[in-house]
Amino acid sequence: MLSRSLTSCFRQLSISAAPTQCRTAAPVLRRALHSSAPVWKKTSTAVEEDQQSTSSLFGDITTPTGSTVLDTVASRAGESQTPKKKEDGSEEEEAIDYTKVDFTNDPDVLAHNFPKPEKPTEILLSPLKREIYEAAIAQYGSYSPKQIITLPDGRRFKLSLTREELEFLQPSVYLTSVRIKGSYKKGTVFTRLLREMDLKQAITQCHFSKKRMARDVGEMLTRGIDHAKKLEIDPEQLYISQIWVGKEPFIQKRVHFKGRGRSGIMHHPYIHIKAILKTKQTKQEFEQAKKDRIANRKVWQQHHNAPIKVYRGSNQYQW
Predict the structure, then answer these.
(1) Number of structural domains, the chain?
(2) How far apart are CA 49 and CA 266, in angstroms?
(3) What's residue 177's pLDDT?
(4) In which domain, by residue range, is 11 found?
(5) Model pTM score
(6) In sequence order, what are the residues at sequence separation of 6 or more whose Cβ sits closer than 8 angstroms to the Cβ of residue 222?
(7) Which residue from 55, 116, 193, 199 has the highest number of Cβ atoms inside 10 Å of its Cβ?
(8) Is the dihedral of CA 28, 31, 36, 40 positive or negative?
(9) Of 237, 243, 227, nearest to 200 (Cα)?
(10) Residue 132, SS3?
């Protein structure tokens, strides 16, 4: 009965029938296709032939290997979403749920987030220079270019360092502030007060100053005490070697309304303050080096800026 109905429908579609006949044939086709008639299935050989005929340019990459897309991606990466089984049949332990792990006290995480600062000798000097410099500090307590330094293996050296290298090698603390509301000129006037001042004394001056930016500068200098302790530097021996003001790139603007229909633009500048703290021993060493340079200068006197003349009756020059 089903084959007869299908044959009659196809005959009606093959001939040039009226539109009403096509509309009546369509429901018959849908009922025939959705009926419980036996469906022809491909064999394994037919599937292999179709795969060979429709092979993709990317090979097996686009062929799904799992029940879901996630399983397919996991299998491509060499990982399985289900726990693997051991040879004895028991399942391996499940993966660690890192959302339940406390990383606040994990030593590896703390070492990554808060790395230990490197020493300047490890960054600037070569291995031999570093060994000589550390031996000079161990033998004499400080460095001097005239020192003869003896290494543990018996070799003797004289180490010559430039002034820039000496400044970098001295223990120091670098500080920077947040964005401060103020102008460059006002910040420069205030920071001149703190130059060459002891750290604790500068913090006291910031506490009692009436300047608006004094509070932010005081917080920055107080942070320097904590940084010095982490660097194993005594905060009592620190002083402000350098402190300067810089302009922030973003300047806030707003409309300035004036009388008689006029207007302008008001600028609200922001600044930042940076400082370098060094030890008092460093200051004494540089002052002593300056005195030594002055004392070791050769005696020199400038000649008079006058033409050369000869004494009358003499062959001597008159300067």
Answers:
(1) 3
(2) 78
(3) 96
(4) 2-33
(5) 0.59
(6) 203
(7) 199
(8) positive
(9) 237
(10) helix
